Recover the amino acids of this structure.
DNA sequence: GTGCGTGCAAATTCTTTGCAATGCA
DNA sequence: TGCATTGCAAAGAATTTGCACGCAC
């Protein structure tokens, strides 16, 4: 389960980062998003709550949030700079190819795959980046 | 095993695409790369063989090669538009976190993971994008 | 009060597009 | 020869940076 807005705010405090109106708006925008969001999307959404918000600040805030682990970057075939609220644990994202909604799953047992890949390639695998896509339940249901 | 330059050229012909000096240079540059390459890197490398090559052409050619399946896009934490010669079969890339070299592995059994993810999230998973990183044998050996 | 954080505007970087000229099939 | 492909230059989009001011702590 992704961190909610309060938890992210808390994480900011823990790091000694200040909570400004702008950051609050950005956090709310991202935490309330049902799918991954690009900096521009965050800008639009957060601006509703904080009209004097600047795009620069959005970039800086997303960067900061991502550094403290509150957000996670996701990559897709098209968009390459999108963010998603990160879960507390190591996890992967599942993106709906229809509506773009994103969920996380943490129950990943990649051990066997990692071992197999290591054996086949000779590399010493230390990290894996996995992203799944498919249809979310809602889209699957409404799809004929 | 990735396609070599000749195979890519062949793939071009099959699609009715013309083989120009520029495309030849781009193909050679990508096929000869030991790691993933960005459009700019391709431009630099290919320019050595074809000085009149334009950057525009590099973008268009990479796009075309990617469309016919000769190249594969890879994403990293930092760079987001990099290409790698694609193998003939479904495969994944393993990137060395030290030297950036890339290999493919095709022996991927993601079935169990995909099923588990589907059960946990309720999504109907149709695709997976996996990228591993670690140390290649050479870097692991020279690392103290 | 002290800086961290901000907005603005300009600079930079990356990518795409229009169009006439070129050269592959 | 015909038409896909190219290069150039300019447009466009996305992101970063410099700097003085304002506000959270």
């Amino acid at each position: 389960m992704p961190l909610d807005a309060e938890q992210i705010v808390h994480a900011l405090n823990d790091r000694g980062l200040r909570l400004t109106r702008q950051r609050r708006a950005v956090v709310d925008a991202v935490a309330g998003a049902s799918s991954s969001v690009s900096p521009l999307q965050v800008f639009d959404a957060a601006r509703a709550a904080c009209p004097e918000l600047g795009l620069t600040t959005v970039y800086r805030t997303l960067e900061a949030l991502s550094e403290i682990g509150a957000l996670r970057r996701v990559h897709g075939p098209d968009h390459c700079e999108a963010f998603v609220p990160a879960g507390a644990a190591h996890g992967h994202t599942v993106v709906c190819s229809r509506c773009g909604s994103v969920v996380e799953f943490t129950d990943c047992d990649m051990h066997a795959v990692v071992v197999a890949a290591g054996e086949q390639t000779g590399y010493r695998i230390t990290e894996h980046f996995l992203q799944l896509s498919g249809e979310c339940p809602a889209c699957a249901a409404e799809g004929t």
